[in-house]
Design brief:
Elements lengths: L5 E5 L3 H16 L14 H11 L5 H21 L3 E5 L7 H25 L16 E6 L2 H14 L4 E6 L18 E5 L9 H14 L5 E7 L4 H8 L5 H17 L8 E8 L4 E8 L3 E5 L4 E5 L4 E8 L3 H10 L2 E8 L5 E8 L2
Parallel strand pairs: 1-4, 2-3, 2-5, 3-4, 5-6
Antiparallel strand pairs: 6-13, 7-8, 8-11, 9-10, 12-13
The structure holds S-adenosyl-L-homocysteine and N,N-dimethyl-L-histidine.
Amino acid sequence: MPALGYTYHDHLPADFSAQSLRDDVRIGLTAPRKWLPPRWFYDKVGSELFEDITALREYYPTRTERAILAESATAIVSAAGVDTLIELGSGSSEKTRLLLDAMLDATVDQTAGLAERRGQGSPADPIAPPAVRPVPSYVALDVSEDALRSACAALVSSYPRLRVGALRADFTHHLELLPAPAAAERRMVAFLGSTIGNFEPTERATFLRVLHAQLRHDDHFLLGADLVKSADVLVPAYNDAAGVTAAFNLNLLDVLNHSLRADFDRSSFDHVVVWDAQQEWIEMRLRATRDMVVRLPDLDLDVHFDRGEDVRTEISAKFRRETLTAELVAAGFISRGWWTDQRDWFSLSLWGRRA
Ligand code: SAH
Ligand code: AVI
């Protein structure tokens, strides 16, 4: 057993992260319509601010997904049959506990069933023992070391029977690093929280194809996806009255200031949220409130902003069952279940691999 109680592997060494941040920032801030990829939100402060967002009255996705899991985790786990749960973009792994509880309950049920059947069997009528299942395991994959370490340390103390691993990696580049299954080990890859909505459509299609290629025939994919609903609900979820989402968005400028010695002035940008009804996605932007030049010495780059100019920092796509299903089927998946809440605001769907 490792000293921490969990294994930790880092596939994002400092120089790799620094180079990919430099590449992303150069591409995004020299584009005709400026943008930045959302993975850079999640430094220590950003990960904590995201956790604060999940508790906001306006931000319904986390509590709605948690309610679906509370109701249906047992059914999901029993439909998939899970020895190892691998979670992409695991963050605090809080909702995951509902899946882990269901996984561990299932192994207790199996053991009890085996003992019961052994008690009934006689030497003349031996009952073949079922195949011994692998130790229940959980692997958290995230870009944020702070989130991984605090989530895994907490899981280790709550779940002594669970084998826990942390993988610091980027799910847009490193899906081939998912732990390979042992013979007869059944894996379920979970992607919760509607983080899939933060991909551009083409990036989403690539992600689904690459993930599908990593799965074996008895593995499953569990997807949490936020559903299309009224803009009156959607916009406040990304523009809360207390300004926590604004702080999360503006923290991106601090990340660039710390990591690239940039000189962004936070007070010269506004947090802006737009519902794009055509694309059916929320856009978060940072809008310059004055003309300015921002210096990024590590890139040897000066970036000019006009007053009113936007940097798009995130899209958060909202889904419909038919189109989401079509995308997964196009990537090779087959539907194994769909769970939602009473208002049909959020979905959890289970997918298998087409043979
Ligand atoms: N799954 C959690 C957290 C969602 S927040 C929940 O449902 O509440 C999104 C998480 O994805 C953050 O923890 C962030 O650090 C992680 N993340 C963002 N981009 C990532 C990437 N490219 N690769 C791996 N993790 C990423
Ligand atoms: C992680 N992701 C699914 C969140 C979302 O809702 O798109 C990130 C977030 N951005 C602002 N609030 C929350």
